[in-house]
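Submission sheet (multi-component)
Chains listed below:
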Amino acid sequence: MTRALTHYTGRNITFATMHGKEQLARGAFRRILGATVAAPPGLDTDQFGTLAGDIPRILTPRDAAHAKARLGMQIARSPYGLASEGSFSGSSGPLVEQREILLFIDDDLGLELIEGTLTTSPLPGGCTITTPVRAREFARALGFPSQGVVLHSAQDGHMIAHKDFTQLDELQATAEALLASGSAVIVQPDYRAHRAPSRADIIRTLCNQMAKRLATECPNCHAPGFGRVDVEHGLPCSDCGAATQVIAADLHGCCECSHRTRIPRTHLRAEPAWCDYCNP
Ligand SMILES: [Zn+2]
Ligand SMILES: [Zn+2]
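Outcome: structure written.
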């Protein structure tokens, strides 16, 4: 089988990650684009904030992904950069909303593309524990050690995250020591991609989407990266025909020229439940 030549065939793309996310992009980027993906050496992405919350994140997810990708490109001296950024909301309740974005930069062409997703995480939020055995039970229920667990201790308003446990005994002993010292202790899933297989799957899917997008040329100017740039709301109500807020079509566009195409969604009518007239 001969591989179609794309704009990125033979190029090396830098994924700004310190925990092996480049492995989640490699397969799709090689298969779809003929490109290689590598992580820059000695990169510290924790400076942009951590998912465990011990280093607060000040930037928006997009700005953080942008800053990480730029730093990776600078270290690797590459014009092509990738970075991903996840955020988890409501991490104290049972339902955790997970947003994930993957950003790609091409300095040669001046492209900056985003693929993103919003899902309900299969991982629960954190919970306060009062006995060390609870940390063990929490970890076992999540599928530890392939799914990691983080302990947070708080004392005098100062929070410390304890990570990278590989043994249940070690986790329980740390919880025991923290509780004995009088700290409040919270146990929480480790959301980092190399310790959260469900998150790694989402990033792998986004990498696949991004590779496909980079293989898609603009029908007008042939620049790579043609794909969804916006959505059009206003799907008509099935009862009265008024425009609703439901998405009617995806708008695909080019980063280099002004070419746009409109791709209608499969539903032609919206449920009256979404209509401001039928269901105000
Ligand atoms: Zn209506
Ligand atoms: Zn174009």
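Remark: The chain has five helices and twelve strands.
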